[in-house]
Amino acid sequence: MEEITNVMEYEEIARRKLPKMVFDYYASGAEDQWTLKENRYAFSRILFRPRILIDVSKIDTTTSVLGFKISMPIMIAPTAMQKMAHPEGEYATARAASAAGTIMTLSSWATSSVEEVASTGPGIRFFQLYMCKDRNVVAQLVRRAERAGFKAIALTVDTPRLGRREADIKNRFTLPPFLTLKNFEGLDLGKMDKADDSGLASYVAGQIDRTLSWKDVKWLQTITSLPILVKGVLTAEDARLAIQNGAAGIIVSNHGARQLDYVPATIMALEEVVKAAQGRVPVFLDGGVRRGTDVFKALALGASGIFIGRPVVFSLAAEGEAGIRKVLQMLRDEFELTMALNGCRSLREITRNHIVTDWDLPR
Ligand code: FNR
Question: Does the entry feature the keyword Zinc, yes or no (predicted)?
């Protein structure tokens, strides 16, 4: 096989390897998929203003997130049901993240439990939470994550209902019967029934609490001492509310363009949120990050780090743990090179002046 030289190449390999229902679930966005394209395209409207003749013989990509030291500002976003991609699923992701010295976020809808992921060995891990209607289930799950050594809760706030993903409707998407949503094993939330449309959409309609509001963010703080990241913020207004309601950090995310179509690319929403946060909490970004240059651009606009979603499931499908390791390595190498060519030796040296966006320019 020809050598893989960038993260995006894994998508085509995954397409060839996976059943259509699975690939489409991983790849799709909502409705017209305008935001899906925009998440990528918006990065191309940001250009560099590199500084020259700076000694870049030593580059330090390390950073710290919520007090945890990691090798680079590139982390793994929660993506559901990874055993559909590869039999090792979330185990492979956990090991690859740990080997790269970075953070993995485990989805509530993982096909491996919090305990199983913890059993893969040491590593810094966050747990992504979907708020179920039954708060006892939520409280139990959060306690299990805490006991299993997870370091933060990423509360997903953009999914009171599932976005309309038409491929999943056409394919009658459902979790294959040999897999379970392991965090809910034994409860009637562990299996996904086949539905007339998307099995996941029906699952969400049945199990996920549409009443979720800021008071629940407060409630969550009464049941756990873990820091809470609010995942799915796209406006300054909500950034301020998140901080007022006790968030330890904000993730600017449009759920990989799978929820509301025609929201802006996350990289375009980032700066507004960063300004509203005023440095009180760290702001992270996910959505469309495929290159080290994208990582640099996000940091220049004020992000403390980024998360990747699809590159993980596609590389997992293609090559298992080795694939994810390669993705993390390629992004890290590209990011380091981007830093060097911009004249930045540490993350602290990356500034807003290193980029110009087309929305900065006079119209
Ligand atoms: C997701 N995402 C997601 N988010 C979440 O909070 N809980 C979840 O279970 C999932 N599951 C999931 C599955 C798949 C297949 C995808 C593609 C995405 C959203 C995810 O955390 C992240 O926001 C996006 O994936 C980031 O965009 P990119 O990197 O995929 O472009």
Answer: no
The beta-carbon contacts of 45-49 under 8 Å, at least 24 apart in sequence, are 45/357, 45/358, 45/359, 46/267, 46/297, 46/300, 46/301, 46/355, 46/356, 46/357, 46/358, 47/355, 47/356, 47/357, 48/293, 48/296, 48/342, 48/354, 48/355, 48/356, 49/353, 49/354, 49/355, 49/356
Q: Tell me whether 0.95 is exceeded by the ipTM.
A: yes
174 lines ligand 1 (CB under 6 A): no
Whether residue 310 has its Cβ less than 6 Å from ligand 1: yes
* Ligand 1 touching residue 109 (CB < 6 A): yes
Distance 343 CA to ligand 1 centre (A): 33
Residue 209 DSSP class: -
Among protein residues, the one with the nearest Cα to ligand 1's atom 11 is 79
40 ligand 1 Cβ < 6 A: no
312 Cβ closer than 6 Å to some ligand 1 atom: no
Which residue has the least CA distance to atom 3 on ligand 1?
79
The atom of ligand 1 lying closest to the CA of 156 is 6
Q: Which atom in ligand 1 lies closest to the alpha carbon of residue 288?
A: 31
pLDDT tens-digit profile, the chain (363 residues): 689 999 999 999 999 999 999 999 999 999 999 999 999 999 999 999 999 999 999 999 999 999 999 999 999 999 999 999 999 999 999 999 999 999 999 999 999 999 999 999 999 999 999 999 999 999 999 999 999 999 999 999 999 999 999 999 999 999 999 999 999 988 877 778 778 788 888 888 888 999 999 999 999 999 999 999 999 999 999 999 999 999 999 999 999 999 999 999 999 999 999 999 999 999 999 999 999 999 999 999 999 999 999 999 999 999 999 999 999 999 999 999 999 999 999 999 999 999 999 888 877
Q: Does the active-site annotation cover 86?
A: no
What is the identity of the amino acid at 337?
L
Atom of ligand 1 nearest to the CA of 128: 6
